[in-house]
Amino acid sequence: MKVLLCDDIKKLGWLGDIVEVNEGYARNYLLPQGLAKVATEGNIRALAKEKAKRAEQRLRERKRIEKAVEAVEGAEAVLAARANEQGVLFGSITEAMIAANLRAQGFEVADEIVKLPEHIKQLGTHNVTLRFADDLTATVRVVVVPEQVEEPPAQEQPEAPQEQEA
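^ thats the sequence. predicted structure below, dont judge the formating
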């Protein structure tokens, strides 16, 4: 069934695109949700202005993302974590921790942009990919250093009470 998209739908198309979908998908999901209309000449003409406006918005968003990629490319995030003597962490460094560190440095990075094959569990330097879009990626260095554990000051042992001879 051919439908006219009324909104951008990930992995299907952009607003104003005419796409071929299964009839059940169109009738049970796209049409009731208002995400698509049956592809008629009247509907196509009605969405023409909205399509042009949305294309302009996507272009502006793309330029903004390209600037963010350019700014963050080659940045370095230094994270401290507790580790044993062999350099194995007592936990792990996650995507959210890396994104929070980069945001603290002033970069525009959401948690879901950081892509790790698995959480970082070793001290050292790691290269991490940031995927802003399918074709826009940046690489940052993540340096994991041992956390300095402050030892409490040595407390004086209270003296045992002296026994008095009677």
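The domain at 73-146 is CATH 3.10.430.100 (Ribosomal Protein L9; domain 2).
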